[in-house]
Amino acid sequence: MSRFALSFARLIGFVRRSSPIEIEDSEAVGISNIISNLITMFPRSILMALPSELFTSFINCLTLLSCSFGRSAALEEVLDKDDMVYMEAYDKLLESWLTLIQDEEHFPRGCFVQPAIQVFNSYIQCHLAAPDGTRNLSVNGISSHDEEEINEIQEDDRELFSDQLLLEDRVNRLHGQLQRTQQHLMAASDLGSVDRKVLDDLYEDIHWLILVSGYLLADDPQGETPLIPSEVMEFSIKHSTEVDINTTLQILGSPGEKASSIPGFNRTDSVIRLLSAVLRTSEVESRATRASLTELLSPQMGKDIVWFLRRWAKTYLLVDEKLYEQISIPLSTAFGADTEGAQWIVGYLLEKVINNLSVWSSETELANDTVELLVTLVEKRERANIVVQCESWWSLAKQFASRSPPLHQLSSSVQRSLMKALVLGGFANMDSDTKQQYWAEERHQTLTRPLLHPSIQVLHPLQQRFLNLINQENFAQISQEEAVKREIVATLEALCGIAEATQMDNTINLIIEVFVEVAHKQICYLGETKSMKLYEACLTLLQVYSKNNQSRKRSDASAEEDQYQDLLLIMELLTNLLSKEFIDFSDTDEVFRNQDPGMPASSRTVSAADVVLYGVNIVLPLMSQDLLKFPSLCNQYYKLITFICEIFPEKIPQLPEDLFKSLMFSLELGMTSYPVGLGGVKKLQGSKFNVKAVGMQQSVCSLMRMSSEISQLCLEALSPLAEQCAKNQEKDSPLFIATRHFLKLVFDMLVLQKHNTEMTVAAGEALYTLVCLHQAEYSELVEALLSSQRDAVIYQRLADAFNKLTASSTPPAMDRKQKVAFLKSLEEFVANVGGLLCVK
């Protein structure tokens, strides 16, 4: 290790002295992988055993390479290269830094402080324009993109560089660069010049500073409770004795003033000062819109601001002190529950939302980010309680309910999120009269005192507009008009928003039931275009349901019963959609009016089977072992699977691997759990189809008793699958291998296990098709069974019975006449030897 570190340090030192390029791109990834392996694979004790001078040299080399690769990665951005080798190498080095810093206690105190600051400063400089940075400087005659090229970039920087920003800011937090970031941001937020090139550089600077600030101050919890990062909290606590609380609150509450003009500006909390810098940037933007200077603004900057505010609000707004061992006094005073600071900033953010929706309604991404900020403000009841006290909230609700401009011009997806926010806000604490007027309940007629907002009704106008539309006598004639279709789409999007917001299971159940009825009554009459729209709506419903129910914890029996009802309806919905493939009363001229006559029918549209299989893939993870104890849900699920296998066996080999294994495991579970009880558990423990993606784990078998109907359904599904394999003749396909596995299962069921005689026909048909497909394997099973017999009498009876079962002079084939003869022989076989070998 010492020799390697020494040679490595000498190599980097030589390259640094001899070449201005430092490291070739072909070498960058390899060198970064070497460093990563050194840091991650060797125990910390090995690194600490290095001589201190050599260890310091190694860290200096790592710092040098990180800065160098960071600059080269930034240049790759400018060149818009396809192969970003320096970017890959830079990411690997940042991961190495994070590994070192997370184990900081094993190393000499403070040994990473200056290197981390140097790496962070280099990252900032690469993304800032001169004079603070190097972004817009020519490098080897190459300068940054012009405006048109920048606009062609499709992927958002906050997604594209999310891992890199996360790693940088983890390093940044640990070594206190809050003040530097805040200083850069406050300096950048002055829109004093109207020169377009200067503004473009300024907006790009603000873009990167806000991204860095957002990742610095807060994490993305991904379903967990958002918490202030411990490093940020410790930093604020450490410097709290130097902070003047009143001045800090003044800095926070005066976004329209220059922070440096407030006396005592430097004696304020750095975390709050960083937020106030973003608020000042936001205020500049808002004032520019009020002064009709919108054309000078950048929608990207607007997106960055609301993204930052949303990320910040999730973590800091109404901070819950019970979640922390110690809390920063400035943070709790400014953002804690029942504080004037929290009330002020909620009002400010709400005004920001309303201003953005008024000005940027045509900018879909910015409007969507803005509404997501509004959702964040109301998704927690404590925050919603403050929001609904703001008069602007009620004005927004009234404007949306009446579809007044410009809100009615928002895209359908944004309107969905806005309806979700309005519904979530309705769950805030209100007196009964206010809540009644908000939801427009019928009881508002009996109120005994004047309403504060007599015209506010969130749901009633939606219902009324929809009813007025569809109840028109000429609705069938006008239904294809663009205005009518827009109104219907807006209504459906609003319903989806309500479904996303509400946690009332009976409401969800009713929404699913509407789709079930539409599919049941209308699908057979719909042409191709309308059918596809229904498919898309159903898939959206399933995606929303899955997203909002996978992580939900259901602690009581009634909640579990509700989800059982939901899933039962979803299975019925998928079955109804599948019926389109064989019951179709639509006008064929309408179906193919706009199609190329020479195009094959199979390529004209996505089939209902494709949609249903996708839906099954969405729903499967929700089917827990407890829910599968409901017999009707099991029956509906297996009916659907059998339905798909019988009508569209050609679709099964094309399924994604996880879904294919899930379906195969479902069939195996249905066949083995009923006939043999706990014996089936032992068989399933070795199942090749038992994958984590399936909600039905091994323990399900001991918790549920499947009916003979389900076992019969599974057997009926095997025959068309085996016939499909015989047509394809692909002996290395997963389906061919799976049918070989099922041959043994069906063989054991008929010969070795007790089973319901009603299943003999289904099991016999399945066995015959599987024997036709795997004749050699069938012979091996028979030979193995006979060789295991020690009783000569039983051996002879079995041998005679098997000889009669396959007495035909020709090999078994997929022929109806041969199948009928085999089934007749099978009845005699079961009668003769059925009781000899059955497992007790």
Overall pLDDT score = 77
Main sheet? none
Taken from the alpha-carbon principal axes, the silhouette is globular
- How much beta, percentage-wise? under 5%
The residue ranges in which pLDDT falls below 50 over 5 or more consecutive positions are: 17-21, 138-154, 167-178, 441-456, 589-604, 675-685, 691-706
Level of helix content?
55-70%
How many helices? The count is: 40
* Rg for CA atoms: 34 Å
> How far apart are the termini?
65 Å
Q: Total number of β-strand segments? A: 0
Give the structural class.
mainly alpha
Can you give a write-up of this model?
This protein is an all-alpha fold. Helices cover 66% and strands 0% of the residues. The protein has 40 helices and no strands. Helix 6 packs across helix 9, helix 10 runs antiparallel to helix 11 and helix 32 runs parallel beside helix 36. About 11% of the residues have low confidence.
Question: What's the short version?
Answer:
The protein has 840 residues and is mainly α.
